[in-house]
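Amino acids appear as letters; backbone shape is given numerically. Here is one record.
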Amino acid sequence: LQTRVALMFPESTQVRSEGELDEVVASGCAAQASLLAQSAEPAQAAVSAQVLNAPVGLRVSSERMEPVLLKNTPLPAKRTVKVVLPAGETRAYIAVSEGESVPKAEVDEDEDEDEESADEDDEEPPRYRPSRLLAEMILELDEATDATRVEVSFFVGTDGKLTVTATEPVSGKTITAEIPASN
């Protein structure tokens, strides 16, 4: 390894073998950071990455959305959720929406007074409501049993195009919606 590393540098560079590998890597990183900080040209403060502009998920009602991909998720991104269908259902309705977070004050107003006894240290995850309907799909199924699940996969590419695929794994029935990037 020492010979291979030595070949990467000019002959005047001395390659030593003392020290643990992780310490050598950390020392090299610190040296590089020091050089960048002292550079005459200012280094870029942040690396530019494409991210999701708004949360995307399943619309549960006109006032509630279950997020699947959150705002600022680095792209490309893929997530899959499983949805349980009630027994006897022959259709799975899937509504995909962009969402917005519900301010904590609005969430607190909606809560029942009886729930004040709940432990205040328990941090509830943020709640979301749909802001823009992106797609609606209906997956036709054989009659659902208690074990029927539909897997809904969300994929957003670096171009911002969203592809949502709903699949019932037992029957193999699938439906897909492609939503172009929004400007």
